[in-house]
Amino acid sequence: MVDKDLFKEAVDLISNSNSVLITSHTRPDGDACGSVRTLSLALDSLGKKTYPLFLSPLASWYEFLFGKKVPVLGNDVAVDQLKEQPYKSCDLVLIVDTNSYVQLPQFDEWLKQTNKKVLVIDHHVTGDNLGNLELLDTSAAAAGEIVYDLLKFAGWEITEEMAEALFVALATDSGWFKFANADARIFRNAADLIEAGANPAKIYRQLYQSFSPERMKLMVRMLESLELHLDRRLATQIIMRKDFDETGATGRDTEDLINECNRIGSVDMAALFVELADGGFRCSLRSKGKVDVRKIAQKYGGGGHTMASGVNLPGPLNEAKKTILEEAKLQLGN
Ligand SMILES: [Mn+2]
Fold it and tell me: How far is the CA of 123 from the centre of ligand 1 (A)?
């Protein structure tokens, strides 16, 4: 739990602000989307002007959370436009579900030179201390849990819409309440949110039964690339640019696909390599507990959690794979 004094400071900071820019990490996941949505709604109802902004497009299955499209930096808003209205008059920047520059591509340039107040709400162990004030709780399974704690502390009304968005944050960051972070606290919070109006069956359908055919085809490609190493304890999978071209899927369609091969019993660690436009690879890492994938990601400039991390590696593919294989070997032995 975040210290009560810090919650008080955060409530004061928000209360004293008029216009708030709200953002989260690139490749926004359910926690990022649910937390940004909830904070926007909460601050709207306090009479604040809110400007949610994403740093890359969100996956289609999170769109139902938002009444209207949230602008994406680089697509709808150029970085230079952050110096203009309406962003110019924002007197608070709220960053949720990350505290790292590397997770805020392009936005970081602006952030480094702005003198606006910054409030960070995050549950990651690693961070660059981006905030003037930071609500950090590494025991929270999702940043949405800290947002929920803040709303309860402040006594702000939690509407049905907010309960739904928070439920999405909790459910997705815990793999629908099945990862190791699914503790009693998250189940209690989830129960509260259901009582506040969140509908789990409806949300499940929106999140997990709404694939596009293109995404399904991309998943097939990925599964075909499956290789097992280190006595079948490390699984690697690959998605190349041509897989996107030939299936019609886009980058945002890769979210969550990494978790598929963790269904194999012998697998302790999984790595998914997604080829980037510059020839490098976005490498997502998952562990079932024996490997600390954050250590690996951090060593190469990435970050995340013990059991779920990500890092960008230079190409070619063989070199990127070799790097991960060597690191996995160090921790798994063999
Ligand atoms: Mn999160």
Answer: 7
